[in-house]
Each structure stands twice: as C-alpha cells, then as structure tokens.
Amino acid sequence: MKNLTAKIRAGKRINDADFHRLEQEAGLHQLGFLANHIRQLKHPEKKVTYVIDRNINYTDICISACKFCAFYKKPEDKSGKLLSFTELAEKIEETKKLGGTQILLQGGLHPELTIEYYEEMVRFIKGRGIHLHGFSPPEICHFAEVSKLSIKEILDRLINAGLDSIPGGGAEILSDRVRSLAAPNKCNADQWIAVMEEAHHKGLRTTATMMFGHVETMDERLEHLRRLRELQDRTGGFTAFIPWPFQPDNTALFEDGVSVRTGGYEYLRMLALSRIYLDNFDNIQASWVTQGPKVAQLALFFGANDFGSTMIEENVVAAAGVSFRLSEQEIRRIVEDAGFLPQQRLMDYSAVATEI
Length: 356
Fold this sequence. Notes:
With 356 residues, this protein is an alpha/beta fold. It is 45% helix and 13% strand. It has helices spanning 2-9, 16-25, 28-42, 85-97, 115-126, 137-147, 151-161, 176-182, 189-201, 218-235, 252-255, 264-277, 288-291, 293-299, 316-319, 328-337; strands at residues 47-51, 53-57, 102-106, 131-134, 165-166, 205-212, 238-245, 283-284, 306-309, 341-344. Helix 5 (115-126) links the parallel strand 3 (102-106) and strand 4 (131-134).
C-alpha cells in the first residue's frame, strides 16, 4: 500500500488493480487523505463552486418504468403531466429573479412527442435569456427512436434550436447487466457513451453521473468509472462528475428487496475513490440533495470541489422520500464554515461575480 500511496501522491494514474486494492484495504481516513491531496493539486486556491439553477422536469409521463424511479407516471395514468410553456416561463422567471443562470431540463420518455416539440421548447426557453442544460442521453436516444432520426441529427437540431449543454443523467451504472435489471427500457451503456461522445464532438460540454448502491457490484462501479475516464481521454468534454446514492423509498427496487439506503460512510468512500480514479476530471460534485448538508460538507475533504446546485426545484429525489433544501446563503455559509471560499459558477465552471 505504501507504493500505491506514493503513486497517487505523485499524481500518477492508477489502474483497475490499484482501484480494487484501495477499495479493499484503505480505510476511510486514508482514502480521504489521498482524495483531498488530489483535490488540492487540482484546486490549490481553496475555492468551492456552486451554481444557481432550477431542475425543471417538463413531464413525468414515461415509458421507461425504471425500477429505481419513484417519480414517473405510466402513459395511461391520468395524473401524469406535461408542463405548458406558460408554466415553463413562470419557473424560468422565478429562477432568474433568484439569481439563477441556467435551467436543468429533464423529463420522462414521453411516447408521443417528436423532435419538433422539443425544438420548439428549446427555442422558447432560450428566448428567455438563460443557459439551457438539457436532455440526458436516454432522452436523446428516445427522441431519435420516436422521430426516426439518428443521434447526430437529433443533436444537430437541438443545437440549432439553442441547446447549450447536456446533463449526465440516465447513466445510473454503465453496465448492461445492471441496466437490464434496473432500467431495461432505457438506452444501454454503449448508447449513453455514444450520445456523450457525439455531443462532445459537436462542441457541447456535458456532465457525468453515477447512481450507486442498488443492484450493482463494485466491479460494475469500476466499469462505470473506467468508461467515463476513457471517454474523457478521447474528448475532454466532461466538465464534472457527480456520484450519488440510490434512494430506495417508493421505488420498484424497494419492493424487490433493495431497501438499504447508502449512508455517509459508504458515500464518502465512493466519492474519494472516484476522485482518485478519475484523474482527468477537474471537478467532482458533492451530493447534498441525497446526503444532506453535513455529509456534503465532509465531502469537501474527500475530493469534492463543487457543492452543486441550489436546486430551486427538485422532484425526482424528493419522490423517493428525500427532501433537503438549501438556499444560496446557506450553501455559502456551509462552505465557509469548512474553511473554503464559495464561488458561484456557470455550467462551464467560469466564475460569476457575486454580491452576498
């Protein structure tokens, strides 16, 4: 372990065998020490960034029926909803009044809407003068299938309509065994990677996520990280990585017996391992939305340099029984109490001048 520790402290890339050794032999404090060292090498200025945005779920109607999701409604469910453009405008204006700089736009896989609808929605949102961080890879794949177009054509049309960047949702675990169990109707791992690679080639920056703590093995978590690292080597298009634990309440996986909620200990270990392995990712985001503010504050010493979003609105995690809320002032106080300097940012991690 001494040689491996020296390798990591020297900033050298670890391999899969090194990852497994760390996961099996390193204690929590040792992982935190190593991850924090890498964080300090990448971000010596002691800043912790955050973004003010709103997560708008434009529809909860979805044909995917993912077993980990407590938010979706089946197409035949009369309680399912598609937001009107008037409702979108109200949410955007409220976001801007709160200092918001972007909209995180994601929704269910609606069986009837074609690319023309999404183009109109993008143009409508962009007409209100805000950055649009929208449509995860499963949505892009679904648009292509419904509209009988290629991924390239879908991306070109959305970019021409005004799409600015793509969120990393829908990755879950990039292993087809896991996806066949938890989300069999959603795009497979290769398709998720292909959407992101094509987006990067077209100049769109994107984020990457990992939802862990359900039916996956540690080998499959590593497979997920490996695929992200390899794509980042090829394109450099990811701005950040966001790992967060599965929330079981009100989900089909809970009914299947996956009922243990990942605690702070396991979350911090996985966060640190991700920072150490993903050496080509500059930014790692803490997940206060699932872990709460105290664990998220600890995450700043386990590799995270970003506190994520103020989440003016959040529906998916809340549907699974977890509902933490933080204002911008609270985020800044938490960051300062940990000994860091809070800095509002844009999606590309450029700074926003703040007056708090």
